[in-house]
Amino acid sequence: MTHSGKRSRIAGLGINLPSKILTNAQLEKMVDTSDEWILTRTGIRERRIADDGETASTLAIPAAQEALRRAGVAPEDLDLIVCATSTPDMSFPSTACHIQRGIGAKGCPAFDILAACSGFVYGLSVVDNFIRAGSAKNALLVASEIFSRIVDWEDRNTCVLFGDGAAAVVIKATESSSHVIDSRIRADGSYADLLTGGGGSASIVSAKQFDPKSHFIKMKGNQTFKVAVTNMAEVCSSLLADNGYTANDVALVIPHQANIRIIHAVAKSLNIPEDKMYINVHRYGNTSAATVPIAMYEAQEEGRLKKGDLVLLVAFGGGLTWGSALVRW
Ligand code: UT7
Questions:
Q1: Is 255 helix (H, G, I), strand (E, B) or coil?
Q2: Using CB atoms within 10 A of its CB, is residue 21 exposed (0-12), middle (13-18) or buried (19+)?
Q3: Residue with CA at minimum distance from ligand 1 atom 24
Q4: Active site includes 83?
Q5: Secondary structure of 161-227 in the HEC alphabet?
Q6: Is 256 considered catalytic here?
Q7: Cα of 157 from ligand 1 centre, angstroms
Q8: How far is the CA of 18 from the centre of ligand 1 (A)?
Q9: d(CA 93, CA 104)
Q10: Domain architecture of the chain: domains with CATH
Q11: Burial 86-100 (b: 16+ CB within 10 A, else e)
Q12: Catalytic site residue 215?
């Protein structure tokens, strides 16, 4: 199949957030923590928690349907479905295949991307390359995470940080000036031990050795913080410079929402005013791969994304992985 448009336009967005809210005050009753500690160290006030029956795909489907509706694309017209998640429904079929069935699409390739909190930016880069190559013209990119299932609710170092949520974008091949300009995705596996989630073949599952905590997140938060700031700032700087832009050209940065202090440190390092950094970490905490598209959706709803704006996306996560994308809105 040949396509005339070779650039990627974000044509429609959707989100789906669980209605159940877990506040810092409620967490104070669960672990040895305080609203004051969580707020000053992370900026988080509350996060959403999925109901027991919810899975990554059931959370994603309404978000995908909203994005399709807003883009004016029918499910049967999709020629690519990519889902970024570290909390898939199961190891296989992929969550993307479950979403494909749930929205009534058929036949197109559907696969997951596992890049932890960088998953959406990774996915955007992959989809953009499919579109540039002429291999897709109507793609659905979804990020859906239920971290409440892999968080150790007895570990105050991690349980206060994460939340559940899903968001989706429909990306169309375009020749218009509104498109993904460029992206960079990176990884350094030598930092793998800084941030891990279990549940895979390395988890001990024999009856004798069963460790009920083997699928929980483990994080060396302090070290992760430092590497996050350095690498997020570096990848943004090089992406801007390689495309002939400076930080002054950027109208809005949509960063991964892990910690307000990381966002402020990245802004400082890039010399970008804090009011150009979109922040909603106080409402949802860290929803891993879903933070960037949820933030993008809310920024659009609030009128903070105007046609022609230069928008910089940046994320960082387990792997370690990180990446950035530059979008002309
Ligand atoms: O999503 C992608 C990857 N993840 C991240 O980007 C997360 C990066 N890291 C962070 O956001 C921060 O490092 C944290 C929020 C996780 C921790 O903040 P910090 O300022 O780096 O604190 P710390 O780890 O240096 O710990 C300071 C103290 C420790 O007590 P001691 O050893 O000084 O007595 C912790 O035990 O804070 C204690 N602490 C807590 N106290 C109250 C850790 N968690 C809590 C808590 N409530 N929930």
A1: strand
A2: middle
A3: 222
A4: no
A5: CECEEEEEEEEEEECCCCEEEEEEEEECHHHHHHEECCCCCCCCCCCCCCCCCCCCCEECHHHHHHH
A6: yes
A7: 6
A8: 26
A9: 16
A10: 7-175 (3.40.47.10), 181-328 (3.40.47.10)
A11: bbbbeeeebbbbbbb
A12: no
CA distance 206 to 73: 47
Ligand 1 pocket at CB < 6 A: 33, 37-38, 41-42, 117, 156-157, 160, 195, 221-222, 224-225, 228, 258-259, 262, 286, 316-317
Alpha carbons 251 and 228: distance in angstroms, whole number: 22
DSSP state of 286: B
Which is the catalytic residue, given 117, 236, 259, 280?
Answer: 117
Question: Would you state the pLDDT for residue 215?
Answer: 84
Which residue, judged by its Cα, is nearest atom 27 of ligand 1?
A: 222
Name the closest-CA residue to atom 14, ligand 1: 221
Tens-binned pLDDT, residue by residue, of the chain (329 aa): 344 568 999 999 999 999 999 999 999 999 999 999 999 999 999 999 999 999 999 999 999 999 999 999 999 999 999 999 999 999 999 999 999 999 999 999 999 999 999 999 999 999 999 999 999 999 999 999 999 999 999 999 999 999 999 999 999 999 999 999 999 999 999 999 999 997 888 876 666 677 778 889 999 999 999 999 999 999 999 999 999 999 999 999 999 999 999 999 999 999 999 999 999 999 999 999 999 999 999 999 999 999 999 999 999 999 999 999 999 99
Ligand 1 mutation pick, 29, 33, 36, 222, max ligand atoms within 8 A of CB: 222
Tell me the C-alpha to C-alpha distance, in Å, between residue 156 and each of 193, 256, 261, 290: 19, 21, 18, 22
Q: What's the pLDDT at 3?
A: 41
